[in-house]
Amino acid sequence: MKKAVVIGATSGMGRELAKILAKNNYIVGLAGRRANLLSELQNEIPTETHAKRIDVSKTKEAMALLNELIKEMDGMDLIVINSAVSYQNPELEWDNENETINVNIRGFAAMANVAVKYFSKKGYGHIVGISSIAALRHSCRSTAYGASKAFVSHYMRGLRQKLVNKKLKIYITEIVPGLVDTPMIKNRKGLFWVASAKKAAGQIFEAIKKKKKKVYITKRWTLIALLLKMMPEFVKRML
Ligand SMILES: NC(=O)c1ccc[n+]([C@@H]2O[C@H](COP(=O)([O-])OP(=O)(O)OC[C@H]3O[C@@H](n4cnc5c(N)ncnc54)[C@H](OP(=O)(O)O)[C@@H]3O)[C@@H](O)[C@H]2O)c1
After folding, report:
1. What is this structure's pTM?
2. What's the gap in Å between 184 CA and the centre of ligand 1?
3. Domain spans of the chain?
4. Ligand 1 mean position to 144 CA, how many Å?
5. Taking burial as the number of CB atoms within 10 A of a residue's CB, which of 13, 106, 207, 230 is the most buried?
6. Which residues contact 215 (CB under 8 A, 6 or more apart)?
């Protein structure tokens, strides 16, 4: 059986993806901060799972705990780095900016670092990172979030280049969701093309199976990405 770790499995897309992976014969390692939600999910999944309470913002500790989880699972073939926070923070409250940077950037890089080193030793593996359409916008309301997702996208492309140069069989998949109905966007107004977490997770799983380099979730967000890429800066500022 293949083994997958989902970082940020307690809610939203990560939770749905963990269930899909389990249904598709993966032994799943579940990670996140909320221990009660981890055990709840373990009870819901009838097949073999392993859970580890990990706070990715405490990078050194989180890296050690991920290595521990991999050992407990007796290996890992796939990791999905899905954990993130997002705040509407127009006043740039520092606690929110700081947490976003710590979780979405430092936490992401720390988890990717463990995965690259583990897969490099093993000779193969698959790293999936969840970015966002927000990486293409410079939002004045969630400045740190958009910037953190631009980091995620660029970091993954850099890793892919590095691994290709080393001729290692380690796949990198960049997932770019548009809007997905999860606790992350609850209470936000004026949203459109919002997909269910289940549908989004299903499309992420398809991308994993096909070892895609990059996918927009859902697919129609490819169009928005194209428009954002072509849009002059002054038009973006009006959004
Ligand atoms: N929903 C959207 O519209 C949307 C759009 C574009 C991109 N995304 C991206 O999709 C991914 C999944 O988000 P979601 O929408 O499913 O949101 P969500 O339901 O809020 O899930 C976020 C997950 O991240 C985990 N997490 C947060 N801080 C953490 C920390 N310090 N250490 C470890 N885990 C942590 C949470 O677990 P704990 O709280 O238990 O730690 C939770 O499992 C994120 O990367 C998000 O940026 C979402």
Report:
1. 0.97
2. 7
3. 2-238
4. 15
5. 13
6. 173, 174, 175, 176, 203, 204, 207
